[in-house]
Amino acid sequence: EVQLVESGGGLVQPGGSLRLSCAASGFTFRTSILRWFRQAPGKGLEWLSVISNAGTTYYADSVKGRFTISRDNAKNMLYLQLNSLKTEDTAMYYCDKDGIRGQGTQVTVSS
Questions:
Q1: Do residues 36 and 69 touch, judged by C-beta distance below 8 A?
Q2: pLDDT in tens, 27-48
């Protein structure tokens, strides 16, 4: 059974940084394409980034240059580094494998 557990969210001031983590189990991590999504209050699910099994990455325009996706295949961990955070980045953040997501981790950007 695929299991994804996100962590690392919290309250941060505008301009601050956070590092989100996603602990994965139940599938062959090193061969999997993995994604990050977010959902802000009252809005739909927004795709943020994808990383291939080879480490190739792509980003949504809204986060390009500010967020960095990475993976550690030895630890079955997916990460999302969030820099230069803005109030509009406030959302629940989810890691994703083929449409399966964890419970999410809340990021709140506020002064």
A1: yes
A2: 999 999 999 999 999 999 999 9
Sign of CA dihedral 96, 100, 103, 108: positive
Q: Which amino acid is at 71?
A: R
Neighbouring CB atoms inside 10 A of 8's CB total 16
What CA dihedral angle connects 41, 7, 108 and 37, to 10 degrees? -40
pLDDT digits (tens, 9 = 90+) for 71-105: 999 999 999 999 999 999 999 999 999 999 999 99
Question: Is the CB of residue 19 less than 8 Å from the CB of residue 79?
Answer: yes
What three-state secondary structure class fits 97? strand
Q: In this structure, what are the phi and psi dihedrals at residue 50, rounded to the nearest 5 degrees?
A: -140, 145
